[in-house]
Amino acid sequence: MPELPEAETIARGLQELLPGRRIDETEVLRADLLIGSTPTFRKWLHSGTFGAIGRRGKNLVLEVARSGDRRLLVVNLGMSGRLLFRARDATDAPPTHPGVRFSLGGGDFLIYHDPRRFGRLELMPESRFAQWNATLGPEPLDAGFRAGDLIRALAGSASPIRSWLLDQRKIAGVGNIYANEALFLSGIDPQTSARAIDAARAKQLHGALRKVLREAIRARGTTLRDYRTAQGWEGSYGGRLRVYGREGEPCPTCGTPIVRTVFGGRSAYLCPRCQK
DNA sequence: CGTGCCCCCTGTCAGC
DNA sequence: TGCTGACAGGGGGCAC
To answer: From the CA of A265, how many Å to the C1' of B4?
Structure first.
């Protein structure tokens, strides 16, 4: 579910709510969501204090400090995960599938909710975090990520470009929605081999990726079904998607009906006229 | 090592 | 109404 814009939106929301809050207790209702031992997870977090909240790719990164030590709570939301701040005076219905509940004192909670349980939480010491961080590709919105970097990276791979974009080791944070949208904007067929994309087209792809990711962040992400911000709100980018989920609808550029194909086990949406 | 396929799990919806 | 199959934003493991 959540790709870079959704994770960024959640991180920004939590950054307003969590820093300085102490964890009184951690309840693990679904141990299969954790990487590592549940008792260690609970014990270490007990009396820890949240610091800065950020994101790496599609993952949320929550700093926790405890008696001079610092660890990173890394949360991957899978397809249906939510990381919700629930205030003491919340009146809406509580989450239906809570997996981990952090008591913040004063009756406030941070709740990890995940019906499908594809998500994972891992509490990482600094060294482990550095090792994990190194497995992920560059951040597409970083100023240091230049068109030239993308052009060089594409040259080595025979994979279809859509599959290449989904590989988190190549670029961090791009998922199926924004890969399809960026390929539409740059006029590239999703099945094109990565190394068959010339420099001019790759430069367009670089710009398109940054454009759609920035637009989506401004709209607080795309809610198709499960995604919610930390405050429980839906994202509004769904109505602005150009091709994703729009099989049979007219291409916004030329009016040709959008086509859905399946490869690599997932749907690709494209305009057969605009994307060659 | 790179790549493609299957599977993890639950909920929802279309079609019969 | 109720059953069945397809499908969903992700990613790890395995065979080739």
So the answer is: 9
pTM above 0.90, yes or no: yes
Detail the DSSP E strand segments found in chain A: 25-28, 49-56, 59-66, 69-76, 82-86, 98-103, 109-113, 120-125, 259-263, 266-270
| pLDDT tens, residue order, chain A (276 aa) | 699 999 999 999 999 999 999 999 999 999 999 999 999 999 999 999 999 999 999 999 999 999 999 999 999 999 999 999 999 999 999 999 999 999 999 999 999 999 999 999 999 999 999 999 999 999 999 999 999 999 999 998 999 999 999 999 999 999 999 999 999 999 999 999 999 999 999 999 999 999 999 999 999 999 999 999 999 999 999 999 999 999 999 999 999 999 999 999 999 999 999 999
- Alpha-carbon span A200 to A189, nearest angstrom: 15
Q: What residue has token string 């014990």?
A: A43
The answer to whether the C-beta of A262 is closer than 7 A to strand C is: yes
Closest-lying nucleotide for A237 based on CA to C1':
C9
Residue with CA nearest to C12's C1' atom: A118
In strand B, the nucleotides that come within 7 Å of a protein beta carbon are: 2-12
CA separation for the pair A243, A234 (Å, rounded): 20
Phi, psi (deg, nearest 5) at residue A219:
-90, 10
